[in-house]
UniProtKB/TrEMBL annotation:
The keyword Oxidoreductase applies. Pathway: Steroid biosynthesis; zymosterol biosynthesis; zymosterol from lanosterol: step 1/6. This is sterol 14alpha-demethylase. It catalyses: 32-hydroxylanosterol + reduced [NADPH--hemoprotein reductase] + O2 = 32-oxolanosterol + oxidized [NADPH--hemoprotein reductase] + 2 H2O + H(+); lanosterol + 3 reduced [NADPH--hemoprotein reductase] + 3 O2 = 4,4-dimethyl-5alpha-cholesta-8,14,24-trien-3beta-ol + formate + 3 oxidized [NADPH--hemoprotein reductase] + 4 H2O + 4 H(+); a 14alpha-methyl steroid + reduced [NADPH--hemoprotein reductase] + O2 = a 14alpha-hydroxymethyl steroid + oxidized [NADPH--hemoprotein reductase] + H2O + H(+); 32-oxolanosterol + reduced [NADPH--hemoprotein reductase] + O2 = 4,4-dimethyl-5alpha-cholesta-8,14,24-trien-3beta-ol + formate + oxidized [NADPH--hemoprotein reductase] + H2O + 2 H(+).
């Protein structure tokens, strides 16, 4: 009995300081953002944040405003959703708010980078320079767009073995539009970027299984709880390693990819492990967000009969009979198509931008209740900052009626009450910016997504050819809901259920 008493006293002696620290010493000062520390010592609100972060984050935003700090597993993570002042500062002050640590973590956790290439800053900087330089060139984007157009058209035209073998679309088949659009865009984009030798078909199923398990990798699930994702990634890495180690096949890729391969050769990183991990991240960057965006773009337009009819007329108007092709430049830059695309990315993108705070700093944040007021907050070196696009994109103060899709929301002359980016009449004088930073699907700063220029190319290409060759009618009266839950913050949202449509091949394209 005495031994049991001694044991209990010992446990209490150990735990008492922990609870004392959590409940008394762990707090924010008046100069810091409000601290949400939860009830569990050390763990804080980590369990809520990992399992289903959306209710927690939106509750705190409604209660505390556009900045607050979460205590997660012994670390402080500050959430910033202020589109007036705060987000702009995080993205523009890269030396204070460093994205490098965030990406190095993902490189290992998600893509299985080898440690030697992940830690080589000179090599990483060379890769980033190549990617940004190449994808910032309109001529390079045009070249990839032409290849994408050719590949996509082969998949869906009247001679398509894919459509005729897998889907008898000429008979008015009912299909899951997401499954159909996902496969056609994945294959055509893969061939356009990696060349016809790329094993797109054999990779597809394993890659999709890996993609659907992304958050399990990020959250560090052990193998037993992420068996299918781990096995799928292993298979994908093996196929990518075999492809890129074969210089004859890899050399048939686009100049964008061969330029990356040349850097690997220059730095002496030509092993299967080095190549496969990095190129898995390129496959991910080129497909995992842009393909679901292209689907939602098509789905929202198809579901609005009047708007779909308007877009069909726009497509017909930009068909050039002499060349038997479209005026793609006009289509990609069309204000209405761009507005609908921006509205789609606003609603469906669910991106997390993470930054490590490299030194003690002050950040000015507007008052969410009275935007004419602002306050400076102290942030500690070693803590982290998170910006989640949905906290801003779905904020009714930034975008009235935020959960509805308004195709014309981003037109410059829109007089709709749903028009975004409400001018901020009392903008901070230091920013000299009359509008909010409320549209952030591509992140910001030096790590702004370089693939954003290709995303609209993919979406418009798919839309044009699908409406050109097919009559598409939704079976359901509603567009499927987006799957949020534990996927919150994990990238462009997927549909929560199938979006069944009746799809029939036109007896001839819109313009004979």
């Amino acid at each position: 009995m005495m031994d049991l008493w001694h044991t209990l006293v010992s446990i209490l002696f150990i735990l008492a300081p922990v609870f004392l620290y959590h409940n008394v010493a762990l707090r924010s000062t008046s100069a810091e953002p409000p601290l949400i520390k939860g009830r569990l010592p050390f763990i804080g609100v980590a369990l809520n944040f990992v399992s289903d972060p959306q209710p927690l984050l939106e509750k705190m935003r409604a209660k505390l405003g556009w900045i607050y700090t979460l205590y997660l597993g012994g670390r402080r993570m500050t959430i910033v959703s202020d589109p007036v002042l705060g987000i702009r500062q995080v993205y523009s002050q890269g030396r204070i708010f460093d994205a490098g640590e965030f990406f190095r973590y993902l490189n290992i956790k998600l893509f299985n980078y080898t440690e030697r290439i992940n830690s080589n800053s000179e090599f990483q900087e060379a890769l980033v320079r190549h990617v940004i330089t190449y994808l910032s060139s309109p001529a390079n984007i045009d070249a990839i767009a032409k290849d994408l157009q050719a590949e996509y058209r082969v998949l869906v035209d009247e001679n398509s073995p894919f459509c005729n073998d897998d889907y008898t679309l000429q008979n008015g088949t009912t299909v899951d539009l997401y499954g159909f659009a996902r496969k056609t865009m994945y294959v055509s984009a893969a061939y356009a970027v990696f060349g016809k030798s790329f094993p797109a078909d054999s990779l597809y199923r394993n890659y999709i299984n890996f993609e659907d398990s992304l958050l399990r990798f990020i959250k560090g699930y052990p193998y037993v709880f992420n068996r299918s994702g781990q096995d799928a990634r292993k298979a994908v890495l093996a196929d990518l390693g075999d492809f890129f180690i074969d210089q004859e096949k890899a050399s048939r890729s686009s100049p964008f990819i061969t330029g990356i391969s040349a850097l690997f050769d220059k730095f002496g990183y030509m092993t299967r492990e080095d190549l496969s991990g990095y190129f898995l991240s390129i496959v991910f960057a080129s497909k995992s967000n842009s393909i679901p965006i292209a689907f939602w773009y098509l789905a929202f337009i198809v579901h609005d009969p009047e708007f779909k009819a308007e877009i069909i007329e726009l497509i017909k108007k930009n068909y050039v009979k002499e060349t038997k092709d479209f005026d793609w430049k006009a289509l990609y830059s069309d204000p209405l198509l761009n507005s609908a695309f921006k509205e789609t990315t606003r609603l469906a993108s669910n991106i997390t931008s993470g930054r490590a705070i490299t030194r003690d700093a002050m950040i000015k944040v507007a008052d969410s209740k009275d935007r004419t007021k602002s306050k400076e907050y102290y942030l500690r070196k070693g803590d982290s900052v998170l910006i989640l696009s949905s906290l801003t994109h779905w904020d009714p103060d930034a975008f009235p009626d935020p959960m509805a899709w308004h195709a014309r929301r981003f037109l410059p002359d829109s007089s709709s009450s749903s028009n975004p980016l409400v001018p901020h009449e009392h903008a901070d004088k230091d920013t000299k910016e009359p509008q909010w930073r409320a549209y952030i699907p591509w992140g910001g700063g030096g790590h702004m997504c370089p693939g954003r220029h290709l995303a609209i190319v993919e979406a418009v290409t798919q839309l044009v050819y699908m409406l050109w060759y097919f009559d598409i009618e939704p079976v359901s009266k509603t567009v499927p809901k987006m799957k949020v839950g534990e996927n919150y913050g994990g990238g462009v949202l997927k549909p929560a259920s199938a979006y069944t449509v009746k799809i029939r091949r036109r007896s001839e394209p819109l313009v004979s």
